[in-house]
From TrEMBL:
Family assignment from sequence similarity: Belongs to the TRAFAC class OBG-HflX-like GTPase superfamily. OBG GTPase family.
Protein name stated in the entry: GTPase Obg
SUBUNIT field: Monomer.
Gene: obg
Domain of life: Bacteria
Cellular component annotations (GO), alphabetically ordered: cytoplasm
GO molecular function annotation: GTP binding; GTPase activity; magnesium ion binding
Binding site for Mg(2+): S172, T192
Domain (Obg): residue spans on this chain: 1-158
Function: An essential GTPase which binds GTP, GDP and possibly (p)ppGpp with moderate affinity, with high nucleotide exchange rates and a fairly low GTP hydrolysis rate. Plays a role in control of the cell cycle, stress response, ribosome biogenesis and in those bacteria that undergo differentiation, in morphogenesis control.
Domain OCT: 345-428
Keyword Cytoplasm attached: yes
Length: 428
C-alpha cells in the first residue's frame, strides 16, 4: 500500500512546575527557600529517514505527544527535561499546517531535521524569587504549556527523471528493464496504481533515480482519475521522459495523446510544463511503416520538443539510447529546491500570553473583568493567601501595563477587579 498523504496531531511537552520548598533541617528551623526549577518539556522534531518510502505508519498512529518536563523538587533539585519526540518521515515529505494549508517545511535532504514545536519552558522554583527584602517567597512559577498543531504530511517523490504518459504505454516496462524495481506489468489500464522508483545504474553514465508514476488522463489537472496524485509527484523531477504508444493499437492517435498530456501539465503548473522533455515513441516493433515515426517526430519538433527517440521496450530496442540521453541531459540541469512562495509558506507566530478587559456596570461600583491566558498563568504562579505573593502579583499587573490600562478605562476607588475567581478592590 502506498500512502502519500496523512493528517496527524502533534503536541510538544509541557514544562515542569517550579517547586515551593524551604530548607528544614535540625537546628535550622527557618531555612531559606530551596525550591528547584521544573524541567523543559520535550520538543517535536521531524527527521528524514531514507529507509522509509511511504507515510503508511501515519495511517495507524495519528497523535504524537512529547514528554512533559518533571516538576522541580526541594533542596534546589531541578526537574528532568522531557525527552524530545523524533518523528521519522520519508525524504520528500512536505508538512502543511492543516487550517491554512500553508507549507511549514519541505524535508528533501538526507538526515534533515526540523524542530516544529518546542517544548514548554520549565517554571522557576521559589528559590529564584528570593531577594534581600523578600526572603521567603511562598510561590513558584508554573511550567509553560506545550504547543500543539494539526498538520498534513504530504509525500512528493524525489526522482531525477519522471516517466510521463497515458496508461499502458510502456512506462513500467522501461523502468523494469533499466533498474532493479519490480513494478506490476500487465496489458490493461492502470496496472500502476502507486509510484515506483528505481536507480538507473548503467556502465558509462552517472546513476540517477527514475520514477514510474500512475498514468495520466484527460482532466487530470482538475483531479480526474489519479490526476492530482500523479501530477504532484512529478513536481520535483528535473527531466521528463514522455512515452507515447506509437502503434495506436488501442485506437488512440499518438500525437493527440502527446498534446493532451502536455495540456494537462500546463493547466497544473506552467513550470512543470516548461520542464525539459525527452519524447519517446514506444512499441515501434508493432509499426511497419517508418513514415509513421518520422511524421510523429516532425509534428512534435514543430511544437518545440527537439529530442524525439523511438523505442521498443518489450524488445529492448532503443532503451539504451533513451537512458544515455537522459543521463546526458541531467548533467546540464541543476538540482533545484521546491519553490515555496511567501503566500504558501506558514509563519509560526511566537506564543504570547494575552488578556482582555471588559467592564460590568454596577449601581454603585463597576467590575473590571480580566480574562485570558495571561490571567490563567499568573494565578497559577501566585499564592493569594500570602502577602509576599500578593505583592508579586500586583507588581506583575503593573509591569504588564494592566494597571495603567485600567486607569485609562476610568477605574475608580472601590471598583472591583476580577481575574477568574479572584477579586480585589481597586485603591489609588
Amino acid at each position: 500500500m502506498f500512502i502519500d498523504k496523512s493528517k496527524v496531531f502533534i503536541s510538544s511537552g509541557k514544562g515542569g512546575d517550579g517547586a515551593v520548598s524551604f530548607r528544614r533541617e535540625k537546628y535550622v528551623p527557618l531555612g531559606g527557600p530551596n525550591g528547584g526549577d521544573g524541567g523543559d518539556g520535550g520538543s517535536i522534531i521531524f527527521k528524514v529517514d531514507t529507509g522509509i518510502t511511504t507515510l503508511l505508519d501515519f495511517k495507524y498512529k495519528r497523535k504524537f505527544i512529547a514528554e512533559a518536563g518533571e516538576n522541580g523538587g526541594g533542596s534546589k533539585c531541578y526537574g528532568k527535561a522531557g525527552e524530545n519526540l523524533i518523528i521519522r518521515v520519508p525524504m520528500g515529505t512536505i508538512i502543511r499546517e492543516e487550517v491554512s494549508n500553508k507549507i511549514v517545511v519541505d524535508l528533501s535532504h538526507k538526515d534533515q531535521e526540523f524542530v516544529l514545536l518546542r517544548g514548554g519552558k520549565g517554571g522557576k522554583g521559589n528559590a529564584k524569587f528570593a531577594t534581600p527584602t523578600r526572603q521567603a517567597p511562598h510561590y513558584a512559577e508554573p511550567g509553560m504549556p506545550g504547543e500543539e498543531m494539526s498538520v498534513v504530511l504530504e509525500l512528493k517523490l524525489l526522482a531525477d527523471v519522471g516517466l510521463l504518459g497515458f496508461p499502458n504505454v510502456g512506462k513500467s516496462t522501461l523502468l523494469s528493464m533499466t533498474t532493479k524495481a519490480k513494478p506490476k506489468i500487465a496489458n490493461y489500464h492502470f496496472t500502476t496504481i502507486k509510484p515506483n522508483l528505481g536507480v538507473v545504474a548503467v556502465e558509462g553514465i552517472d546513476a540517477f533515480v527514475m520514477a514510474d508514476i500512475p498514468g495520466i488522463i484527460e482532466g487530470a489537472a482538475e483531479g480526474v482519475g489519479l490526476g492530482l496524485q500523479f501530477l504532484k509527484h512529478i513536481e520535483r523531477t528535473r527531466l521528463l521522459v514522455h512515452i507515447v504508444d506509437l502503434s495506436g493499437v488501442e485506437g488512440r492517435d499518438p500525437f493527440e495523446d502527446f498534446v493532451k498530456i502536455n495540456e494537462e501539465l500546463k493547466k497544473y503548473s506552467v513550470k512543470l510544463w516548461d520542464r525539459p522533455q525527452i519524447v519517446v515513441a514506444n512499441k515501434t516493433d508493432l509499426v511497419y511503416d517508418d513514415d509513421v515515426f518520422e511524421d510523429f517526430k516532425k509534428k512534435v519538433q514543430e511544437l518545440g520538443f527537439d529530442i524525439v527517440l523511438k523505442m521498443s521496450a518489450a524488445m529492448r530496442n532503443g532503451v539504451d539510447e533513451v537512458i544515455k540521453e537522459a543521463a546526458r541531459m541531467l548533467k546540464n540541469i541543476p538540482i533545484k529546491e521546491l519553490e515555496i512562495s511567501e503566500d504558501e509558506r506558514y509563519i509560526q507566530e511566537e506564543k504570547r500570553f494575552t488578556y482582555t478587559i471588559a467592564i460590568e456596570k454596577g449601581e454603585e461600583n463597576n467590575t473590571y473583568v480580566i480574562e485570558g491566558s495571561f490571567v490563567d498563568r499568573l494565578l497559577s504562579a501566585v499564592n493569594i493567601h500570602d502577602a509576599d505573593s500578593l505583592r508579586y502579583f500586583h507588581k506583575v499587573l503593573k509591569n504588564k501595563g494592566i494597571m495603567d490600562e485600567l486607569r485609562e478605562m476610568g477605574i475608580k476607588d472601590e471598583d472591583v477587579v476580577r481575574l477568574n475567581n479572584f477579586e480585589f478592590e481597586y485603591l489609588l
